[in-house]
Amino acid sequence: HQQQYAPSENDWDVYLETLLAQGKKEEALDALREIPCSPLVMGTENGNNNNNNNSDATSVLPQIDDEFTIENHVGSILPYTQRRKLERMAKLALELGKYDEAEGWYKELLVVFPDQWTYWLGLIDSCVVMGSGATGATINEEGWARCQSFANEIIKANEESGQHHPLRGPHLLLIELVALRARRQSDGKEEVVASLLKAICD
Asked: Which of 56, 76, 82, 165 could bond to 8 as cystine, CB 3.0-4.6 Å?
């Protein structure tokens, strides 16, 4: 009797790519929400922060008894990771214009991986330029302020934790926010440049 395993990361990816190939982004996002996964940080209680399908983080981890468990298993045995799940959900939410959800997922990633620059760019895209990219004409001022505040919170938390290596990501984000405004502002350039220099010096 062959042991039954939960769907692996590869199994889920095949299913998700099939949905995306058919243009079913909403369905893919809904499927991602329900995928049980390993925790974002080992030692946390649950690897599925978006719902409560798992009562325990180890419930999605495969039981490997010996080498025969791996040798006799067809395909990957690894479960979906929370990091990959959040990355894909945030990207899909952006594409679907679900900016509030994308913002929340990028922040969740940045709390754990504060120097991952692509996550900061995703946060900017979800709450500052609202998917309009670097050439967008407008800035969401409330989102700009939220982004700035979040970066400062990450910097403060890192300093209070006594980490020996200062972060680069949130500091670069503060510079990018000012530069973003400079690229879109025709008047008051001198004031923006002064703000940019202050951000660099700080």
From this structure: 76
Length of the chain: 202
Mean pLDDT rounded to a whole number for the chain: 77
Q: What is the pTM of this model?
A: 0.75
Whole-angstrom distance, CA of residue 157 vs CA of residue 148: 14
Which tokens in the block code for residue 62? 């495969």
Compute the C-alpha angle 62/68/44, nearest 5°: 20
For the chain, the distance separating the N- and C-terminal CA atoms, rounded to the nearest angstrom, is: 64
Give residues with Cβ within 8 angstroms of 48, minimum separation 6: 35, 36, 37, 54, 60, 82
Tell me the C-alpha distance between 130 and 140, whole Å.
Answer: 7
The phi-psi region of residue 188 (left if phi > 0; otherwise alpha if psi is between -120 and 50; otherwise beta) is left
Burial category of 65 from C-beta neighbours within 10 Å (exposed 0-12, middle 13-18, buried 19 and up):
exposed
- pLDDT tens digit sequence for 121-173: 999 999 998 766 555 557 889 999 999 999 999 999 988 887 767 889 999 99
> Measured between alpha carbons, how far is residue 82 from residues 93, 100, 105, 149 in Å?
16, 19, 11, 25
Select from 99, 100, 83, 105 the least CA-distant residue to 35.
83
